[in-house]
Amino acid sequence: MHDGLERSERGWGELVERPNWAPGDIDLERPSVARVYDYWLGGAHNFAADRAVAQKTLETMPELRGVVLNHRAFLRRAVRYLLGRGVRQFLDLGSGIPTVGNVHEIAQAADPECRVVYVDIDPVAVAHSRSLLNGNDQVSVLQADVRDAAGVLTSSEVDKQLDFDEPIGVLMIALLHFVSDEEDPWGIIGGYRDRLAPGSFLAISHAGYEADEETDASREARKIYNRDVTRMTLRDKTELSRLFGGFVLVEPGVVRVPAWHPESPADVEEAGKDFPGFAALGRKA
Question: 180-184: which pairs have CB atoms within 8 A and are 24 or more residues apart?
């Protein structure tokens, strides 16, 4: 150890350092979804392996960083929309590593009594979330696989914060493209939906294109990501709509991510027909 870092030379061609904030059981050589995403957002909680694959994809598809930022902006807009509809508790699934503009920051700025549960499988994401939230009794962090809806919903963290007799905003931001059809995303969503009170909401943003829209650059970037991080399943507008079974879509329905309740002309311009992702919000009747 030196200056809080454990150093070793590994196969990514860069000196691998284990910072003192990194849990000891993390494989520094294996990129993770949360840490690659953190790098794209400009965060500092990532390792050489994460940076290497993230940079490779950016070299192939330079607009990818802007795409990721648009998903983050949709999160902000969706939470504010829900606050305006009286929602005061949120379940953020696949929440990732904390960056500026987290759900609790947005929600508690409007109402300090808002409650939030963050759920992620990545130990770095969980460790940093817990550190950030130290002393905030209205927020809990759960390390769990979001595909296990029963496990998440029966956890002590969820039991402490969320009242299922009242509306809850469930957030699946840039998450479900990591769930293949074989893993039954409809069933996973149903496991959460069935516990929700009427008036609850589901927000989803998802990578995807309509038929014949995907570019060669996008295909190459996805090939790199599939090989080095995890496989992605792109879905089109119709396929995303089908994930909202049991929910009534809020206007404007399923649209390109920047086009959902845009806040500026730049959002509208960004939502050109080839933007690689869709978003929507549904309400449980």
Answer: 180/231, 180/233, 181/233, 183/147
DSSP state, residue 250 = P
Exposure string of 242-258, with b = 16+ CB inside 10 Å and e = fewer, is: ebbeebeebeeebbbbb
Beta carbons within 8 Å of 219's beta carbon, 6+ residues apart: none
**Looking at residue 92, what is its pLDDT?**
98
Euclidean distance between the first and the last CA atom of the chain, given in angstroms as a whole number? 56
The DSSP symbol for 184 reads -
Q: In terms of Cα–Cα distance, which of 284, 198, 257, 268 is closest to 69? A: 257
Mean pLDDT for each 10-residue chunk of the chain (285 residues)? 36 51 67 92 88 96 94 96 98 89 94 97 89 89 97 98 98 97 98 98 97 94 96 97 98 96 81 86 97
> How many other C-beta atoms lie within 10 A of the C-beta of residue 281?
28
Listed in order, strand segments (DSSP E) in 184-256 are 201-207, 248-249, 255-256
Interhelix angle 48-60/33-40, rounded to 10 degrees, is 60
The whole-model pTM stands at: 0.90
CATH topology of domain 70-211+236-283: Rossmann fold (3.40.50)
Confidence (pLDDT) at 273: 66
Could you tell me the residue ranges of all domains in the chain? Answer: 70-211+236-283
